[in-house]
Amino acid sequence: MKLSLPQKTVNRRGFTLIELMVVIVILGILAGLIVPRIMGRPEQAKQVKARMQIESISTALKLYKLDNGMYPSTEQGLQALVEMPASGNIPKNWRKGGYLEKGKVPKDPWGNEFIYLSPGVHDEFDIIAYGADGAAGGEDKDADINSWESE
């Protein structure tokens, strides 16, 4: 006697070419809308980092003034925060080890030096990062980041 098991019919229907094309078109539309928004974020992150660096340098400059009664001159520059100045107004109470972490003046997120003026045009001192183009002025990614403008 032969036993037979009930046979299940398996429906192995796959996706049609039209269904796949519709999915690809939808993904393309989504990518076209989302990718440009994501691509602008790195530049925005650099601008935020520049603002944070300027705040950190400003704090170090205020500590320098607290210890020495004055800000470093424009000629002494921000380097006075990591090395005791040898010319100009020599600070009397310069802090051993300097005023910036890691013992060096950071570069802006675009790899350029910060511009330092003391006395500044807008405040007791001005710190400027020129943005992606490394030149004064500009808009969007080339916009200057300044110590006297806060967001």
Range of helix content: 25-40%
Order of strands in the sheet with most strands? 1-2-3
| Sheet having the most strands | 3 strands, antiparallel
Specify the number of helices: 2
**Strand tally:** 3
SSE order, as H and E? Answer: HHEEE
Written account of the structure:
The chain is built from two helices and three strands, in the order ααβββ. It has 151 residues and is mainly alpha-helical. The longest helix has 28 residues. The chain starts with 16 loop residues before the first helix and ends in a 5-residue tail after the last strand.
List descriptors:
151 residues, mainly alpha, 3-stranded antiparallel beta sheet, 3 strands, 34% helix, elongated
Short summary:
The chain has 151 residues and is mainly alpha-helical. 34% of the residues lie in helices and 6% in strands. The protein is elongated, with a radius of gyration of 30 Å.
Helix and strand layout, with pairings?
Blueprint: H1 17-39, H2 41-68, E1 115-117, E2 126-129, E3 145-146
